[in-house]
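CORE FACILITY INTAKE
Project code: CF-77B
Contact: R.S. (postdoc)
Sample description: multi-component assembly, two entities in total
Requested service: structural model of the whole complex
Turnaround: standard
Below are the sequence entries exactly as provided by the requester. Do not edit them.
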Amino acid sequence: MLKVSRLTAMCAPVFAAILLALSSAGASPAQTVDRMVTHNPPGRAGGQIVVALRSDPKTLNPALAADVPSRDIIYCMNADLIHINRETQKTESALAKSWSVSRDGRTYTLHLRRGLRFSDGKPFNADDVTFTFQIYLDEKIHSSQRDLLIVGGKPISVQKIDDYTVQFQLAQPYAAAERLFDGLPILPKHLLENAYRNGTFSKAWSISMSPGEFAGLGPFRLKKYVPGQRLVLERNPYYWKVDGQGNQLPYLSEIVFLFVPSEDAQVIRFQAGDTDILSSFSAQNFAVLARDQATEGYRLLDVGPGLEYNFLFFNLNDLAANNLPQISHKQVWFQDVRFRQAVSSAIDRDGIVRLVYGGRAAPLWSQVTPGNRLWVDSALPHPARSLERARELLKNAGFSWKSDGTLVDSQSNPVEFSILTSSSNAERMKIATIVQDDLSQLGMNVHVVSLDFGAMVDRLLNSFDYEAAIMGLASGDTDPTAEMNVWASTGGTHLWHLNETKPATPWETEMDRLMNQQLITLNYETRKRLYDQVQQIVAQNLPVICLASPDILVGTKDRIGNFHPAILDPYALWNVEELYVH
Amino acid sequence: MCFCSSATRGFVWSDIVKHRHKLWGALLLLAGLHVVVLFAGFFAPYGSSTQDRNLPFAPPTGLHFVDASGKFRARPFVYGLKDDPQALGSFAVDSTQVYPVHFFVQGSSYKVGGVLPSRLHLFGVSAPGRIFILGSDAYGRDQFTRFLYGGQISLAAGLIAAALSVLLGVVIGGLAGFYGGWIDDLLMRGGELFLALPWLYLLFAVRAALPLHIAQWQVFLLLIVVIGLVGWARPARLIRGVVLSAKERNFVVAARAFGASDVYLLRRHVLPQTYGVVLTQMALLVPQYVLAEVTLTFLGLGVGEPMPSWGSLLASLQQYYVLSSYWWMFLPALLLIPVFLAYYMAADALQERLKTVPL
């Protein structure tokens, strides 16, 4: 990555020189449009596609959107400064045509494309960028992006150099800084400034507003919204990308989002031909759809393991203040690494892959999935399931077995605990049932408890009233910085032991050191070595026992061209501007 | 008049015979069913939670008498399964693997009546062969085995809850009918209140208020208590009606005139007249309450994995891929039909007997 940014840094003056030459040659700067040329084969203009979303969007305001449907729609309507190409997993220029990094790695200078217009026809320049970051960084707005923009404990500072140059200052070198800009849509100052000044920004761009009040730099703009039924986006005539033949993108005239509440209903609608693209569905439904794919004019693609990792973890929280004696007493087992290793060794990961995901998943021994090609430690050992090893570990940890096979600890207490899962996730419930059966073979009496997701999260994050749980996490990016909140001991998603004032174990101290070191290291190879060590610590000490990573499965009608699904969100629509209808 | 009377008598007699047949037929069917369920360990070929992770959603195993070479074999046999290369996750019959079915075989251990350990099973095939009469579920567990073990939970829940309901009905309906007046008003209005209770939501609320994980037997007890407690009002009303008319009968009035106490009257003269209603109500309520258990477990409020019940066997049908791909997952639902039918037949025959045979 550093190489890329250094290269662009060297190229930047050249671009600037060409631009200067163009403008000095008499071309009016207002007419010069720095279009971006894409590389996919040219498509056909016109037509519409229909895509199903689980629910209505809650808002179309990028600073406030937290739910998946809102974010999917916002993705189609907006653009960011630097973009992560979902296919290569690397950054590429977007609204910033080029950028350079200072030698100390703390100053980023971005050169914006000239002559671009928002979807309402108004011009775009550096004022929009500074305004946008003012919004994202404003504590009163509570934008979900704000956390990302705090580097080394301080917010990134933004400064306009001229109309088409913006400079970002970081408190410390930050390895993945350019990846930060992905997913930060640039907002139109001319439409939102009043709302911001009047303190009504939290109501701005709510879903009930008329289409004329929205504008973005993305390939599509809002046309119509029928609550509870559908939302229609139309082509943005001012969009700034062209294909290799100079045709302006996007090709599609319209995207229709239908609101279909459940996965099964979405599968049926796709099967019936009502929708053109389907993503985020189970391997079992994949098998159902696969039977008819030859005759029904659609095709299904298994993109391989995504970034989601599902894992089992034990409650290692400090429960002194929570008055949960039942759980504190069981923590003696959970805190013993040999107990966790025995559990890990007894779990049949291949069985999970086969039974839960119909073979469309990868077994995991650490948090980085094989889909994350740049960061996975491929040298990590993958020990096969072994009940003998598990028994050996338990024996060494002072456990023994009664005559009826029940496992008891050194005080003769039978080993019995419950595993919490979310009742809305059929796959994790199935994993829990398999784990329950596996551990019963070690003489452990395991109960599976399913709660609705909200109640479960409350127990995991607030009351700590649980013994073990099965969860899944998926970062939005392949880069390890996206995982800081999980692996740093102070992180908000450090699930097994939250609110640590100092690392509770030596290996957590080491993990903190490695994570913080990789954060400020700019060289990819060095960072990779550091993050490999983190993966080894996770595999060895098992704060979470990683189980499996499901494949990203998508379906599309045969008539859709340039369809290249990726493992990064949004899996199927990431190159929506290039999609076309045959 | 004589002609008329003999004709009536003839009709009644043949009716009694017919209903007696129906009753015996139904009772025999029910007895058979309950014996099989009670001794599930013997009749089922596998353990209730034995998983074969290589055979999830395996179709029902076909019994064969003629092998691939066309030769007839006296002992039935089954073929092994192999992964279907055409479709990931489905199976094809492998006619090279032949497993004869044996009777009275040793297999996984279980306890007869929860006490006596045994390994004897009615039938089975030797490993690695598998016999799945009703196919296997998502974990490769035998559906037939789970149906039999599931019956233990579901039928027990239905029977105990129905007994609880009817017992409450007899006590409350008996008191209301016998004493009348404000006691009657109070009890019957209370009953109406119970009829109006949204019991499903009640159960959701009760479950939410309980601790995170409660033992399976506690869940089971909770189911029974909630189903049984909520349903007493209907039998109570019926029994009150019978008691109301019974206490006005001449022999009851006469007994009272001779100085019989209330307890004596209720015990000797009034309540015995309700026994027909009680039996009919039992036969009607058991399938209703089994269905209630099935519904609650289907919704995730019943006993949890890996313990099977009829409701949890049907719960997988909530998923589209199961509905559309694995027809054998419907078989437990089909098997419930004769179970319910037998109970309703018994109730029907009892009802008819009540009408035709004066108590």
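Facility notes:
- Residues 286 and 409 of chain A are 44 Å apart (CA to CA).
- Chain A has two domains: 2-276+559-581, 309-551.
Invoice: internal transfer
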